Amino acid sequence: MNPKLGGVRSGILSITMKDKAVLYAAFMPFVKNGGLFIATNKRFSVGDDVFLLLTLMDEPEKIPVAGKVIWLTPRGAQGNRATGIGVQFSKKNELAKDKIETYLAGSLNSDKPTHTM
């Protein structure tokens, strides 16, 4: 299952993560300030500023998250990887990172890299 993506326009992405497994797969705790992989066909460049409206599980409110594109996975990438972008949260987005880590408590373990970017 992939996160639902809607409302794409000029660097604004509306993301819904309704499943803990999808959130776990997308979350990047090894990135300084945290980050998410967002599957999208929209074109971005490394360094682009993006604004996420993030909905976690069944929460009624969207969490606004400012971030920056730190990597791209292009269409047709080796290993059938999903096309998309890696977004690093800005320093001001502790709420998003804290909520994600709360949902994933006990799931974040050594099978993901721990270095920082």
What would you say this structure looks like, in words?
The protein is an alpha+beta fold. The C terminus is likely disordered. It is built from 2 helices and 6 strands, in the order ββαββββα. A hairpin with a 2-residue loop joins β1 and β2. The longest helix is centred in the last third of the chain and has 10 residues. The protein has a 6-stranded mixed β-sheet with strand order 1-2-4-5-6-3.
Stretches where pLDDT is under 50 for at least 5 consecutive residues are: 112-117
**Mean pLDDT across every amino acid position:** 83
- Could you say which structural class the secondary elements and strand pairing correspond to? alpha+beta
So what's the overall shape? globular
Strand and helix order:
EEHEEEEH
> What is the β-strand count?
6
**What's the number of helices?**
2
**Percent range for helical residues?**
10-25%
Strand content: 35-45%
Main beta sheet, described? 6 strands, mixed
Q: TL;DR?
A:
This protein is α+β, with helices and mostly antiparallel strands and 117 residues long. It has helices at residues 20-26, 94-103, and strands spanning 4-9, 12-17, 35-39, 49-56, 63-73, 84-89.
